[in-house]
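pasting for the record
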Amino acid sequence: MPVDCRIDGQTMPMPNRRQCEAAGGTVIAPPDKDKKHDCFVRNVFTRTLGGTVLDIGWAGAVGQGIVDALEIPSRRRRRAGSRPSIVQLTPAKRRALTARAASAILTLARTYPTTHDFRDRLLLTTPRGRQWNRYYDRYLPEIFHVADRDLELMNASATAWLALYPFVRAMVRAASAKRPSAGGKVTFTRRQHKACVNLIQRFRKGSKDRSFRAVLGELQRELAGYVGLSAEQAVAKLRKSRSKHT
């Protein structure tokens, strides 16, 4: 995995520490040197999409659902009860689907810096946030396991994340602002909350890990308290929240 390298005030990926330092840069270490933290975009979306490209490369045909899952954000809905169709893979079709997967990765990659800022400036600076970050680190293998087995769920997760992204970005800006009102006009809507709840329920249904399912229930209950809040209000609420004994 590349390292994050800071050169002349700009952060960029470099292949390793040696090349970063040779270019006059400094490697940006994870906040916890004893444990690797990373985000959903890299650990779940990109890994799943990359694995799908490998499948497209060797298979002679794929289900239409794989083709649909590569459209991120999703704009299609398969009718309930309809029979899945099969798509034969020609060289041209493989190239087109690979390009679609790459486009999805690039779309999600643009949100990647915000996920890190949300972790560093909000989660890791608040008691409750640190607890949620520990939950994420603990259950990341299970999250990936569930999403990787269900491309429709992966697609729904990515689509929901892109819809929620403006609010998360506004929270980061509000947390970094020296004056109030930064991100104050962006709110966590009922529609966004409903999408989050639907995802939580699907992950609970797809997992057999009782403790993970319990944490998802805890997350669902907590998110309900943020509905209708502005980004600035959400930041204030998170900062006041205490960690819970589990």
